[in-house]
Amino acid sequence: MNKVKELSIFEAIIPVVALVLMLAFNVFVFGDDALSGSNQFILLLGGAIAAIIGFKNKVSYDYMMKEIAKNIESTAGALLILLMVGALAGTWLISGVIPSMIYYGLQILNPTIFLAACLIICSVISVSTGSSWTTSATVGIALIGIGEALGVSLGMTAGAILSGAYFGDKMSPMSDTTNLAPAMAGTDLFTHIKYMAYTTIPTFVVTLLVFVILGFTQNTTGQADIQTIIVDINKSFNITPILFLVPIVVLVLIIKKTSPLVALLIGTLLGGVFALIFQPQVVAQIAGTQKLDFVSAYKGVMQAITVKTQVATDNEILKDLFTSGGMEKVLGTIWLILSAMVFGGVMDAIGALSKISSFLLNLFSSVFGLFASTVATCIGLNLTASDQYLSLVIPGKMYAKAYKDKGLAPENLSRSLEDSATVTSALIPWNTCGAYHSGILGVPVIDYFFYAIFNWLSPIMTLIFSLFEIKIRKIINK
Fold first, then answer.
1. Under 8 Å between Cβ of 80 and 74
2. Angle between helices 61-74 and 38-56 (to 10 degrees)
3. Out of 366, 414, 447, 455, which could bridge 185 as a Cys pair, Cβ 3.0 to 4.6 Å?
4. Average pLDDT of the residues in 105-121
5. What integer pLDDT is reported at residue 428 of this predicted model?
6. Cα Rg for the chain, rounded, in angstroms?
7. Do 343 and 324 share a structural domain?
8. Residues 6+ apart with CB under 8 A from 181
9. Smallest Cα–Cα separation from 301: which of 134, 91, 125, 120?
10. Which of the four pLDDT bands, split at 50, 70 and 90, describes residue 219?
């Protein structure tokens, strides 16, 4: 046993406060580039500060390293899933699965229900790409232009776009945040997604109904010009509904409770096979050759799986959507997780997390109090640290033990993290997400804030569920 002096609550929160202050300054200096590595190093510095407090209280270096190793080991499954998600995104692009989702999604656009159509289109595209940023920067820009031409309020249009974009950012297995939240909380990806659906689907339905009602109040005229985009998708890919067999197979495997890694691997391999059958010209282009043979086919599919690839198009709107990062794209997130595990491991070793956990349990004796505290912390970090990822990482490590001690399954925490940290980041002007979307769409945050209904309703919905203890899963002792 490691005999150490028990920390005071003041000593326990010193590393957390120091980390938040350092991260806030780092994001101020580097902006969007902070995730390129400097934030990860700041997490390591936070771990170093925690270690100094540990040394002062007689915690050995070896014990800290053992706790770090245990923390990293606990995320091994999540890290492998992240790599496979990157691979899946690559083959689903070159096979035409993602372009087909965009193609058919755009065709539901109708001026009469423009706002509701914006929500649905952006939801489809963000689920298929796993990125609210890509959705906003591509189809979002096009929809803003269409909305302006129809005379629809830019704030309303931007709110509908972001509501749809963040639905996918939460629910897509290809989203960084959707992988990060369960990794921090200690649950698996598909349990997390399934459990999130309980609060996310009602929120989405309410959002859709509001936009349908708002749509009938708009006097829209003219037709939305989406024909150019549809034609350009057809130029680059052979679009067919048969391609939807790939995501359907993966969905069936998930429903049948197949291991997430197995389901994603099969989806990746099927995507590669369908790419060779339906998009041989795309595979040849990725391989850098005119003629497709065994070697070039292997090279093209392997490139899509592992590194950044881009399908040629002259349409500026489609360039980002026709780009995939493969396994290489997720390395930054993996780096962030590993750095967070170092910080969390040291905090565990010195007893800081257990001290904070017991303090929070005493402070918030009810289940609702714990959920409310989580939501407030996530939103607070979005306001101060100004970064969506950090608003998932820090509370995830802070509250994991508190939820366990309360007898609550880890998916309660992972859902709360996404319902509050992921979605509210776009509502804060100085947050990296708020600044990005506002700049890309050309609409100030204050103009779209009220209409980004899904984003501000999500934390309210999770609090309602916790207040009435709806779908609050307890730990099952086996």
1. no
2. 140
3. 414
4. 79
5. 87
6. 23
7. no
8. 192, 392, 396, 414, 415, 417, 418, 421, 422
9. 91
10. low
In a domain, 476, yes or no: no
Whether residue 196 sits in one domain with residue 127:
yes
The pair of structure tokens assigned to 116 is 């509701």
Closest alpha carbon to 441 in 17, 39, 122: 122
- Average pLDDT value over all residues in the chain: 86
| Count of helix runs (H) and strand runs (E) in the chain | 27, 2
Exposed / middle / buried, residue 298 (Cβ in 10 Å: 0-12, 13-18, 19+): middle
Is residue 475 included in any domain, yes or no?
A: no
Residue 60 structure tokens: 């050995």
Q: What is the mean pLDDT of residues 439-447?
A: 85
CA 193 – CA 293 distance, rounded (Å):
40
Question: Are 107 and 237 within one domain?
Answer: yes
Contact 279, 192 (CB under 8 A): no
How far is 364 from 409, CA to CA, in rounded Å? 17
Q: Is it the case that residue 195 has pLDDT exceeding 90?
A: yes
Share of the chain above pLDDT 70, in %: 93
Per-residue pLDDT at 478: 46
Task: Name the burial class of residue 48, with classes exposed (0-12), middle (13-18) and buried (19+) by CB atoms within 10 angstroms of its CB.
Answer: middle
Greater pLDDT, 167 or 26: 167
Which amino acid would we find at residue 217? T
Based on the fold, state whether residues 100 and 207 are members of the same structural domain. yes
Q: How far apart are CA 434 and CA 382, in angstroms?
A: 10
Contacts of 107 (CB under 8 A, 6+ apart): 226, 230
- How many other β-carbons are positioned within 10 Å of the β-carbon of residue 430? 14
Range of the domain at 322: 78-329
Residues 174 and 121 in one domain: yes
**DSSP code of residue 136:** I
Which of 274, 294, 329 terminates a domain? The answer is 329
Question: CA 359, 365, 368, 372: dihedral to nearest 10 degrees?
Answer: -30
Which of 18 and 24 is assigned the larger pLDDT? 18
Q: Where does residue 143 rank: exposed (0-12), middle (13-18), buried (19+ CB within 10 A)?
A: buried
Q: What is the mean pLDDT of residues 400-404?
A: 87
pLDDT at 299 over 70: yes
Q: Which amino acid type is present at position 143?
A: L
pLDDT at 225: 59
